C-alpha cells in the first residue's frame, strides 16, 4: 500500500477520534494534577489506549503515574516513541497546556495503531509524568524507556508555531537555614536569624545576576520565613532554579550560586542545608531532519511556522525532553494555541489550553506526529538523515549525560523543577 494511502488513513483515524481526543483533553484540563500526582490523568489516558485494544503497562519504568504501550512490526523496522505529558502547575492549572500534549500524543499513537498489520514500523507510546517538576523523562530513561528506540517526538503548545523551542539546561535547589529562636525584643542577641540568612543569600544572588551571561537565568522564591515577628526565626527556606545554555555552563553557574548560599550561612551563623536536584534538565538537541519532516506535515495541515531566529533574544524555557534528545534523535515542536503576547505559565494561557484553538492543536498535533512517524518508518533516506544528524552530536550528548551524575554540592532530593 502506498505512503499516500497510509497517510490518508491515519489522518482519517484522527478525525474519527476527534470527539474522544477533545474529551480527554478537556477532562485533564478540568482536573489539573501536579507532578507525580497525575493519577486521574494517567488513568484517563491509559484507559483510552486500552479502549482501542492496546495493552498498557501502568506504573511503568518506576514512576507511579507513568504508562507505556507498544505495538507494530518487529524485525529491523524503526521504532518511534510518541510522548504525552499531563502534569499541571500549582495554582494556575494547565497554564502550559499539557492537556493538549497528552491528547495529541494519544491521538497520534492510536491513529497509527489503526493501520494494524500495515504499520511499517513500531510505536512505543509513553505517558511521561512530572515534566514541570522532577524531570520524569530522565528517570524513565534511566529505567530503559528509550532503549531500542530510533526516534522520539512530542508537541508542545505556546503562542507561535515553531519547529523547535529554545531550551536551557536547568536544575533547582531547595535551601534551608537552621538558626536559633529567641525573643526578638528582649533577647535578640541569643538568636540566630534564619530568615536573615535567606535574605542575605537572596541579595547575593541578585548581585550575582548582574554578572552572568544574558543566556543564563537564576530565579527563586522564599518558601518559609518564620512563625511570628516577635520570634527570631529558627528556620527559613528558599527554592531557586538555575538555567544555562548547556550542561557545562550550568555546572559552573551552580558553583557560583552555592557560594551565595554559603554567604548567608557565614553572615548569620546559621546552618545551611542545600538539596540540589537529583538530576538536571539538559538543553534540547533538536534533530533537524526530523524537525523538517514535522514542519512539512504540519504545513500541509495549514500551519505556518515562525522563524525561531526571530524570537526575542533570551526567550527560552527548559524541558526534560532535552534529556531524551541526548539519548535518541528527538523533536519538540511548538503549536500555537494563544495570541502572541500570552505567555505560558499564565492564567490566561490556561483558558486558551481548553479553547477552540487549543482543541485544533490537539488534532493538528496528533496528525503531524503520526505523519512524521510514518515518514521515518517508510523513507529510509529520511531515517538515515535522522541518524546521521544525531551521530554528529553524539560526543556532545555523551558529555552532557555524564554531567547528570556529578553535581558536586550538598545533598540531593528526588528531582528538579525546571519547565
Could you write a compact summary of the structure shown?
The chain has 419 residues and is an alpha/beta fold.
Task: Give the fraction of residues assigned to helices.
Answer: 25-40%
* Rg (C-alpha, Å): 23 Å
Number of helices: 13
Shape: elongated
Secondary-structure-derived class: alpha/beta
Q: How far is the N terminus from the C terminus?
A: 42 Å
Query: Segments where pLDDT lies below 50 for 5+ residues?
Result: 407-415
3D architecture notes:
Helices cover 40% and strands 16% of the residues. The chain is elongated and about 85 Å long. The strands form 3 sheets. Strands 1-2-4-3-5-11 form a 6-stranded mixed beta sheet. It has a 5-stranded mixed beta sheet with strand order 8-9-7-10-13, covered by helices on one side. The protein has a two-stranded parallel ribbon with strand order 6-12. Helix 6 runs antiparallel to helix 7. The chain is of the alpha/beta class and 419 residues long.
Features:
elongated, 419 residues, 16% strand, alpha/beta, 6-stranded mixed β-sheet
List the helices and strands and how they pair.
Blueprint: H1 3-16, H2 18-30, H3 39-50, E1 57-58, E2 67-72, E3 79-84, H4 98-113, E4 122-127, H5 136-142, E5 151-153, E6 156-158, E7 169-178, H6 194-208, E8 217-224, E9 235-244, H7 247-268, E10 271-277, H8 288-299, H9 321-325, E11 330-331, E12 334-336, H10 347-352, H11 356-378, H12 380-391, H13 394-403, E13 411-413
Helix pairs in contact: 1-4, 1-11, 2-4, 4-11, 6-7, 8-11, 8-12, 11-12
